[in-house]
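Let's practice the habit of predicting before peeking. Look at the sequence and jot down your guess about where helices and strands might fall. Then scroll down.
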Amino acid sequence: MEQIIKDGLAKSMSYQAYRELMAKMVENESTTGNDKSEDMVNYTKLNEQRMKRWDKTLKVSDSAKEELANIDSKQTWLVLTESWCGDAAHVVPVFNKLAELNNNINLRLVLRDDNDALMNQFLTNGGKSIPKLILIDEASNKVINSFGPRPAEATKLVVDYKAKHGEITPEIKEQLQQWYNKDKGQSVINDLMNLLTVSV
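Done guessing? Here is the structure:
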């Protein structure tokens, strides 16, 4: 596991580099990941707009800022993501906003499809769901915890819908986007703060 994480970190990029990569993908009518279909390219375009909006508008409460300030040991937040992923477009900018508030947090991003061994260590119910945040203590190189792909409330929304309808449909994807827009990143912040409190 330690070697797999080391390999992942070696291939990782900063949030800024990831955002530049996304902009380049949009410009070239392309997408990250193995599936270069028109749908995926369109999702990347959509997500570029979403992330641009969250980068500008996301707010972190004073209480969350205080909790973040309590992290006094160096941590790396390694995130598995792809440009086409709708959840990632809403969740990853929150990770970045939080990481910017504490110099002890080093946010790094890797592409899921280029890091299969790493992804396989952090499956969600057997699936390669993203985004997935891996919290690593830099002193020991040990994984403290992981988070994702969605905040608990959004996960419940999807699970309940799937139980009722038997599958993920365009309707639930639309509902999920509306939920994220209404929530404004606050559930991600709260869930992550709870996780960090347990981990510290």
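How did you do? The chain has a mean pLDDT of 95.
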